[in-house]
Amino acid sequence: MTPALEMEAVRKVYESGGEEVVALDRADLVVGSDEIVALVGPSGSGKTTLCSIAGGILAPTSGRVVVGGRDISGFSARELTEFRREMVGFVFQTVNLVPFLTARENLLVVDELGPRTGRAARQRADTLLEELGLGDRADNLPGQLSGGQKQRVAIGRALMNDPVLVLFDEPTSALDTELGEQVVGLIRQEMKARGTAAIIVTHDERITHHADRTVHITDGRVEA
Amino acid sequence: MRIALRELRRRPGRFVVATAIITLIAILLMFLGGLLDGLTKGNTGAFRAQRAEAIVFSATAQDSLVRSRIDAATRRRVEGAPGVTAVGGLGSLQIGGRVPGHGPRDLVPVVLFGYELAPRGLPARPPERGEAYADEVLRSEGVREGTVIRVGPQRTPIRVVGFVSDTEYAGQATHWGSLETWRAAQDANRPGSRVGPGVTQAFVVRGGDPKAIDRATGGATSTLTIDEAIGKLPGVSQQQSVFNQIIGVTVVIAIVVVALFFALITVERVALYGVLKAIGASSGTLFAGVVLQAVVVTLVAGAAGAAAALALDAAIPPGGIPFTTSAGRLLASVAFLLVAAVVGCTFSLRRVLRVDPATAIGGAQ
Q1: Which positions in chain B touch A169 (Cβ < 8 Å)?
Q2: Which residue among B53, B178, B190, B248 is least enclosed by CB atoms within 10 Å?
Q3: Under 8 Å between Cβ of A45 and A26
């Protein structure tokens, strides 16, 4: 099976105040096709940078990044946009649903950003919402949903394009312990049910037991 | 694009202020355009009504009907010019008219035209001496068919035998009679500028080429196309220039309003745009959404402005404010506003392009 993610000697350097800041230093990481990896590290360790590079949001300074068999290291901004639309899913720390769209429409946004599939997309959105336990909430706006329900809608949105890799950025940071536990359990259940790989960025060691593997990152260096 | 439309539908309150301001601008734009058209209409009707290609003035008249005098000999040369198929004399007299029922000093300004080649809406044969067709706007002064209007200090009687529309001249209502009726009124009331038999102020000409006509008269005439003659009417081009400049400034204001409003909205949406970019939206898609919203807001404002302009037009009595609406003017105003909306949105383009999808994922570390 083709790994969902292969990163080889990936380095990301920023310019700050005329000095070079190394955010990621020769990082190597392989994530299997249905593997769930918890990426744990303190604030500023480079985990968000790694996640952004894996998801095609940032381009690496050097190194090789292959997602679902596609080498995205040299992709242009336009190619990265298309790649993000088709190959990966994101669940953001602050959920970030579109506030004036219903739960169903938030899922359909993914379809509307690319070549539209219309009815097929609507069916997929309804199926995903049903599977996520939100079948009766499809027509609710985010403001009418609880924190956990919003998180589930965000998971549904991340799965709309049938991605090879889903990136979760601190998915429990805005939730209490019990709800956080439930959400991560749900993430595991949904990823495993679909055979989809995931990286869960977190600084909360308590949820890592839901992952198949935990990878630590410190000062931009990945420690297996 | 659908997201943009849904935002308009679900959050109309966000766009109320912009729609209201653009509606006011649309009303101003259409009002200015309506005034310009009304003034132009009221100044040029007599020339626009001519069913001819050109008007011939005497060479020394500086293309002014009042100053122009052309005699019978010149007429024969004009008739002999290549391509000319018909020539008709035209005379005008701007004068005060006394309408029955009005006070003795309550004069109605009118222009009495004498014609040979019938303008639009008039019979080919001019009415009998002492009779004339009156412009419709005189109805508001109480003029009816059969009314006798006495013009000038000599109270020359002109009996109204019918009405004609859209023939105003220099902002005044017109009467249309024979050249004899015009000469009689001119000679009686302007003894210092009597016109002899066979003399008219100008000719209207069908067929022929203006330059060829002037060559045929040996330079004794200045021949203008109808459009050129309209442009030479006193004040017309100046009015158009001033109003068009005000309309231009109004469009610039519309650009600024749209630019400021959508720049503000774009700033508010930076986080949302970051998320949408992260999940695969291109800058082009996001900018198209901004433009679409601006276009919809402008169309709504344009429709409201057009409705207000039409209501105003219906409310103004004939002969009141020189204001007129036309589909062309309303559509042109909406088109100007749409261009302003699109141009205004371009000020947000840079900000949309600069939105970094990395902001959605906690920012680069």
Answers
A1: 361-362
A2: B248
A3: no
Q: Which residues, 6 or more positions from B191, have their beta carbon under 8 angstroms from its beta carbon?
A: none
Whether A169 and chain B come into contact, CB under 8 Å, resolves to yes
Interface residue A102 vs chain B (CB under 8 A): no
pLDDT at B365: 40
Judged on CB neighbours under 10 Å (0-12, 13-18, 19+), B64 is middle
Name the DSSP letter for residue B70: B
Percent of chain A residues topping a pLDDT of 90: 54
The nearest CA of chain A is from the CA of B8 a distance in Å of 10
CA–CA min distance B275, chain A (Å) = 7
Q: Are B81 and B68 within 8 A, CB to CB?
A: no
Mark yes or no for CB contact A170/B362 under 8 Å.
yes
Burial class of residue B316, CB neighbours in 10 A (0-12, 13-18, 19+): middle
Confidence of residue A224 (pLDDT cuts 50, 70, 90): low
Sheet holding A70-71, edge to edge: A19-31, A5-16, A62-67, A70-71
- Of A196, A194, A195, A150, the C-alpha closest to A172 is A150
CB contact under 8 A, B280 and A81: yes
Cβ contact B275–A92 (<8 Å): yes
Q: Does A100 touch chain B (CB under 8 A)?
A: yes
- Whole-number Å distance between alpha carbons of A202 and B4: 34
Query: How many residues does the structure list for chain B?
Result: 365
Given a cut of 50, is residue B330 above it in pLDDT?
yes
A84: closest chain B residue by CA: B280
For residue A79 the two structure tokens come to 């190619």
Chain A segment 57-76 residues within 8 A of B by beta carbon are: 57-58
DSSP B128: P
Contact A46, A220 (CB under 8 A): yes
Closest chain A residue to the Cα of B12, Cα to Cα: A100
**Residue A48 in tokens:** 């968000």
Q: Give the nearest chain B residue to A90 (CA atoms).
A: B279
**Which 3 state secondary structure label does DSSP give A164?**
coil
The 10s digit of each residue's pLDDT in B22-80 is: 999 999 999 999 999 999 999 999 999 999 999 999 999 999 999 999 999 999 999 99
